[in-house]
Design a protein that fits this description.
Chain lengths: 464, 443
């Protein structure tokens, strides 16, 4: 400005006009913020950072696991925005197209997407053509990610790595995971991020948590439905109040689809999760409510029962520690908002489950039974878990409950059998001796008790 | 620039335009525009730049009119900047006459000081049982001197409603900070007394009103519990909503900080100091949230004059959540004590009578503060360990606390869990020569 002052008056005028234009832009930005009202046109600030364009997008999708259906929904979201989408799926086409989510790819083809089957670790199998944005929704470590990164290093505007919030180190003091927190040293995803930085490709990393929704390849809340719909006890790792984040796949897809054209997201990591988390007991209650039943929750300690190791319990679908994260960064920087709420979705999920006929299918409850036996509360006819549970009416059905209680004489109000919700167990005849802090009744010997029953555990009151 | 409130960007504009106008002033001597350069003068000068030596009566050409429009918009923009930029609301809000109900115990101490510093005229309405201005650890002699000079006082009992109305009438309060209100009836006389001049009523409610829910965190739109202990707060919010006044309700979670009269961190500090194990109910994995009192005070200040806060409710607390076990560990870190022994017990197995065995609700209890962070342009300054260290260094660590240590419940628990093998550690003997200032010199 000071140099131009030496020019003619005309230059000054042009200069003032320029200032004016700049001021108007600032004013628009400012006015937008101050008035809080939505303007008819996008504010200048947004216009500068997000260019609306039709990008050619490649999604490299995994062949199974909890992330498998991200590709399907992400493709739908991108197609809605007008981008050109190609999905390259890993795995065997003939086998995978028989199950969800891959069986739904035909819907994508109808909307104009291209489906290819290839091996993400072999660039020669990649679909031909140039891509503006590449999503790696497959690799979990450097070995599986590096070939793709190296191939697209200098060819893409934006490279998105769908990582996992499982890489965060569990923090027993402040359990919520925030971007920037410490990660596990063993996490392969961290190596991939370091490589992306080294290679200087414009990247964004997303870290999802547990995802639910239709067409998934891996059970999430279905584990709970399996047990509650069959009136089985639901074994939950104690204390049952652990909080976990459950996010609908459409919300995950909507966040990932904000990337094309968004230069602010380059070099950033984002947690992908709903802004609410739910406890295990809360999931049971929601599912039970949707099914119109009562959940029979059995809390157990995986370590004591022998099925647990380092934050995971055998047979349980979730980590046994708090596992939830903050998605505030994505909300602030990407303008993302979750639309789903698990408690509102659960009715639809349960209806989906029944529609697929899963309530009639066999489920392997062997680990459940192992746990319940170890707790001394086995479910009757454990053998039935291998056969069909069809037509096998359990004590919990109202008609039978009535008959058992009406036949026996009125008992005093406490009952170890009822309190522990033992289904069918034969109590030792002298069980009353153990009440009121008396001598614990020793477990009856093999000779004196029938083969299938078990005695009340000595510490039954601690289970209350 | 992605931040439109970027002060350096604004300053750049300001600086450059002022330089230009100063350059132009001699050139436009004919106009005789007087210094200081105001926006009006800028208009004239910008028009003059086009016309310069021509007659002043000539109708400006289209281009010049465009420039006039531009400069008019510019001056509008500057006005808007000055008046309602939320980022520095308290400094750019004009000084108000503020009434604070209470303000001599905890939150009010920090809030009153911040408001006085921001240039407002603050009056405390208290019974007068405590001095209105007394030194707190965060004061410096000069800051305290200026505070005690500026702070005003109206003596009265807020439960005497006619008296309240009478004493507030004709005072002309524009903003009311009601931080000790419990029931809706207490608010009515204040509203009536300030009716003619009231611009904003800021109420300190509580996150305890939220209904217990399996889905967490609590958000401002969540269901509230009509049977909670804090029903009075709910009634008050409802009254404020019905009255049509411009109100804002703040719902803090657990507040901590120097001079806390609720034994939140103090409870842990007592046990850590005595070297006792810390009994935590259940699994210790219940998640809760602590918010530093200074951050709460800052949030209250950010509400003042903020148009976005009109008739809104905000959760205010720390940004991150913490488990019960985590609080014990964080307090130990803040004190520089070794990691504590934590004993878990089943609360149902005991009968503690009236004593509280643990200072917090035995449930998940935390709320999302992102609405406040977005609307009020507020950010908690203190993290957990940092805040607890601040509280320790300024309060407990100096030997001051409000409630004496009461280990009765602890002993019941430990006796049961560990059996008679447990004996209170020798540290209890060390606690006996309690420092002379122990019984709250902050009374």
């Amino acid at each position: 400005i000071f140099l131009i002052i030496s020019g003619t008056k005309r230059h000054l005028v042009i200069l003032f006009r320029l200032c004016g234009v700049l001021i108007i832009m600032q004013a628009q930005l400012k006015a937008n913020r101050v008035s809080g009202a939505r303007r008819a046109f996008a504010p200048a600030g947004r216009r500068l950072s997000v260019k609306v364009m039709n990008a050619t997008v490649l999604i490299s999708n995994t062949k199974g696991g909890g992330h498998a259906f991200i590709g399907l929904y992400l493709a739908k979201e991108l197609l809605k925005k007008g981008h050109k989408v190609t999905i390259m799926n890993d795995g065997d086409e003939s086998k995978l197209t028989k199950k969800t989510p891959f069986s739904k790819y035909s819907e994508l083809v109808r909307e104009g997407a291209t489906i290819a089957w290839g091996d993400p670790t072999k660039p020669s199998t990649y679909p031909r053509g140039s891509f503006d944005v590449v999503y790696d929704n497959n690799g979990k470590d450097l070995a599986s990610c590096q070939p793709m990164i190296d191939h697209f290093k200098h060819k893409v505007d934006h490279y998105v790595f769908v990582s996992s919030a499982g890489a965060y180190k569990a923090d027993s003091i402040e359990p919520m995971h925030v971007e920037g927190d410490a990660r596990k040293s063993t996490a392969g995803h961290v190596e991939v991020e370091a490589y992306l930085e080294k290679v200087r490709i414009p990247f964004t990393v997303f870290q999802p948590l547990y995802i639910y929704g239709p067409n998934t390849a891996k059970d999430c809340e279905q584990w709970f439905v399996d047990r509650i719909i069959r009136d089985r006890p639901v074994p939950i790792p104690a204390p049952g109040i652990q909080l976990t984040s459950l996010t609908h796949v459409e919300d995950v897809a909507s966040m990932l689809a904000l990337v094309p054209g968004n230069r602010k997201a380059i070099g950033q990591l984002y947690n992908v999760c709903s802004d609410r988390c739910i406890s295990f007991v809360g999931i049971c209650k929601s599912v039970a409510k949707a099914l119109g039943k009562e959940a029979n929750i059995v809390l157990y300690s995986p370590e004591k029962v022998g099925t647990g190791k380092s934050g995971k319990a055998e047979g349980f679908p979730f980590r046994t520690v708090h596992f939830f994260a903050s998605s505030d960064k994505a909300k602030r920087e990407l303008g993302w908002k979750p639309k789903h709420d698990f408690q509102k979705d659960v009715a639809a999920l349960v209806a989906d489950y029944k529609a697929q006929g899963r309530d009639k299918k066999e489920v392997d409850f062997s680990i459940d039974d192992k746990i319940l036996v170890a707790l001394g509360t086995p479910v009757k006819a454990a053998a039935a878990s291998n056969g069909t549970t069809n037509g096998f009416s359990r004590v919990s059905s109202p008609a039978q409950a009535e008959s058992t209680t009406s036949s026996a004489p009125r008992r005093p109000s406490f009952s170890p059998r009822r309190d522990l919700k033992i289904q069918r167990t034969v109590l030792p005849t002298n069980w009353r001796d153990s009440v009121d802090g008396g001598e614990a009744v020793p477990a009856s010997t093999a000779a004196s008790r029938p083969a299938r029953s078990s005695s009340v555990p000595k510490d039954w009151r601690s289970a209350l | 620039m992605d931040k439109t409130t970027n002060p350096s960007a604004i300053a750049w504009h300001n600086n450059n335009l002022i330089h230009l106008s100063q350059f132009l002033a001699p050139v436009l001597g004919a106009y005789g525009s007087a210094a200081p350069v105001g926006s009006q003068d800028l208009d004239k000068m910008q028009v003059a730049s086009r016309q310069n030596v021509r007659s002043t009566a000539v109708r400006p050409k289209a281009a010049a009119r465009r420039v006039q429009v531009i400069s008019a918009r510019y001056s509008n923009w500057r006005d808007q900047l000055a008046n309602s930029s939320p980022s520095s609301s308290s400094s750019s809000v004009e000084p108000k006459k503020i009434l604070m109900m209470g303000g001599t115990r905890f939150i009010g101490l920090y809030l009153a000081r911040q408001l006085v510093e921001a240039g407002h005229e603050v009056t405390l309405f208290t019974r007068g049982k405590k001095k209105v201005a007394y030194e707190i650890p965060d004061d410096t002699p000069s800051s305290f001197a200026s505070f005690s000079r500026s702070i005003k006082h109206i003596q009265g009992d807020r439960m005497d409603f006619p008296e309240v109305e009478r004493k507030l009438a004709r005072e002309g309060f524009q903003v009311v900070y009601d931080i000790n209100g419990r029931e809706a009836v207490e608010v009515e006389p204040v509203l009536k007394g300030t009716k003619s001049t009231l611009e904003q009523y800021i109420y300190c409610s509580s996150a305890g009103v939220y209904l217990k829910n399996d889905m967490m965190p609590h958000r401002e739109e969540d269901a509230v519990d009509p049977k909670s202990r804090h029903k009075g707060k709910l009634d008050t919010e409802e009254l404020l909503r019905k009255s049509g006044v411009n109100f804002t309700s703040i719902r803090p979670v657990y507040i901590y900080g120097p001079l806390n009269y609720n034994p939140v961190e103090e409870w842990f500090f007592h046990r850590l100091k005595a070297g006792r194990p810390i009994p935590v109910p259940g699994s210790g994995q219940q998640v809760t949230q602590l918010g530093h009192v200074k951050d709460l005070a800052t949030a209250f200040v950010q509400v003042l004059g903020n148009k976005k806060a009109a008739r809104q409710i905000y959760n205010i607390s720390g940004e991150r959540f913490v488990t019960f076990d985590g609080i014990a560990k964080a307090c130990a870190k803040a004190m520089g004590a070794p990691e504590p022994e934590i004993i878990h017990y089943n609360a149902k197995e005991f009968d503690f009578g009236k004593d509280k065995p643990f200072p917090m609700r035995d449930q998940h209890f935390f709320a999302s503060v992102d609405k406040a962070m977005a609307d009020l342009d507020w950010q908690p300054e203190f993290g957990l360990v940092g805040g607890l260290t601040d509280s320790y260094n300024k309060d407990f660590g100096r030997g001051t606390f409000r409630k004496e240590a009461n280990f009765k419940c602890d002993d019941l628990i430990l006796e049961k869990i560990k059996g008679s093998a447990f004996s209170a550690p020798k540290a209890s003997a060390a606690a006996a020569p309690a420092p002379a200032m122990s019984r709250a010199s902050w009374r």
